Amino acid sequence: MAQTSLRWNRKGIRILGLLSLLLLIQNGNAYEFKVGNSGDWSVPLDANANDYNQWAERSRFQVGDTLLFVYPADKDSVLLVTKEDYANCSSATPIEKYSDGHSVFKFNHSGPFYFISGVHDNCVKNEKLLVVVMADRSNNNQTITSPSPSPSISTIELVPPAPAPFSEEAPPPPPTSSVEMNPTPAPSQESSPPSGASSIVMSFVGTIGAFIGSSILLGL
């Protein structure tokens, strides 16, 4: 029993360690911004210039980031309001209210966020802030626009060659040849070669003559 409980305790410690690691990784992707770059939430020195919005335009806020407001808790506060209440400096029905003097607001979704001072006169003097939050930092998915594929041959419209211009007059026929073809004369029968029988007779006579000539030469 002791060994079983020890194993369960080890598993529980491992699970808690993994959860803590996941939380650290998630928080590691977030940033804490100090309002106005200093964290001071008060009436701007120049009441005609909205210093807070100019600072927000130079910053890049994303889901998971936090915003720190530092102010005297007994004299001021931070209100999260709608767009209409932001424009009118209306503090009657805020979405959220912070008055602890060291307020941290976390952006949980993308889009615009409107903050004003809980003191009406301060809001009129531009103690107000508009923040536009982008997507989550941990979202690494990017939409890639693939280039348009080249059209295949089957989708290309083939344009036939232009036909030859039509002519009302038919082209003249090709000229006929004026060369006269003379037939080749047949060979005459007088120059025909000797027949096979006559050639045998001539060969036999030549053989007898050669035999007689050789006999005469031997007799001498």
Characterization of this structure:
This protein is of the alpha/beta class and 220 residues long. The chain is 32% helix and 18% strand. The protein is built from five helices and eight strands; from the N terminus they run αβαβββαβββαβα. It has a five-stranded mixed β-sheet. Strands 1-3-6 form a three-stranded mixed β-sheet, with no helix packed on it. It starts with a helix and ends with a helix. Mean pLDDT is 72; it is low at 21-27, 140-161 and 185-201.
Secondary-structure topology with pairs:
Layout: H1 2-28, E1 32-34, H2 51-58, E2 61-63, E3 66-70, E4 78-81, H3 83-88, E5 96-98, E6 102-106, E7 111-117, H4 120-124, E8 128-136, H5 196-219
Parallel strand pairs: 1-3, 2-8
Antiparallel strand pairs: 3-6, 4-5, 4-7, 7-8
Sequence of secondary-structure elements? HEHEEEHEEEHEH
- Number of DSSP helical runs: 5
Any idea what the radius of gyration is? 58 Å
Question: From the helix content, strand content and strand pairing, which structural class follows?
Answer: alpha/beta
Biggest sheet statistics: 5 strands, mixed
Number of strands: 8
The percentage of residues in β strands lies in 15-25%
Mean pLDDT: 72
Lateral arrangement of strands in the main beta sheet: 2-8-7-4-5
N/C terminus separation: 153 Å
